[in-house]
Amino acid sequence: MQRLMVIDTETGGLDAQKHSILEVAACTLGGEPIFESLVLEARREDIVIGKVAQRMHKINIDELELQGVGPTTVITRLLDAVDTHYTDGRPTLAIKNPTFDVPFLKRLYRLSDFGEDQFEKDWGHRFFDVTTLGITIQMVNKVHVLEPPQLNRMADWFDVPKPEGQHRAMVDCLYTAQILMKAFMELRSNHDFFPSGPHPR
Fold first, then answer.
1. Please, what CATH class does the domain formed by 4-126 belong to?
2. What is the pairing mode between strands 92-95 and 4-11?
3. Helix or strand or coil: residue 20?
4. Beta partners for 92?
5. Contact of 27 with 172, CB cutoff 8 Å
6. Within 10 A of 109 (CB to CB), how many other CB atoms are there?
7. Which residues of 129-149 are buried (b: 16+ CB within 10 A; e: fewer)?
8. What is the pLDDT of residues 11-39, one digit of tens each?
9. Where along the chain do its domains lie?
10. Confidence (pTM)
């Protein structure tokens, strides 16, 4: 389990080809923060943030210009922090929704001096899909409507309190790590393999 690192992004929307990546954070599975940074990926006029996304995370362009750093610096600092914490090799990335976050992480690399191909060299296909874990829980508990569960629903299953300030990268990282740890503890201790108490619904 210690070979997992939770990573999260905040973005300007849903489309990694169009919307900007705004924030990246990473933490250990045990909840130790590793890295956090705002991303200033372009000039002010070229940053794309949709109104719905901005209402959720409340990141604005003024904040990005004041505190953000460029993609190359973000990646360099992230890799340095990761290599400091995981001295025996790169960890597997635990991501709440890889189909969303991975394209934005690739965007970050594409806009940097590293280039998108370096993303595959750095991380390959080492992803642990938290959403798929949630679907598996539903399947094991014979829930008839199998839909991708939101993080808050999984938190309810494992009695993880919802944090203040959701939709910021580090807050969501630590929240995801808590949920994963509770899920793995249930797997180790429960002969039925998934949560004691009421079935998820």
1. alpha beta
2. parallel
3. coil
4. 4
5. no
6. 22
7. bbbebbeebbeebeeeeeeeb
8. 999 999 999 999 999 999 999 999 999 99
9. 4-126, 130-189
10. 0.90
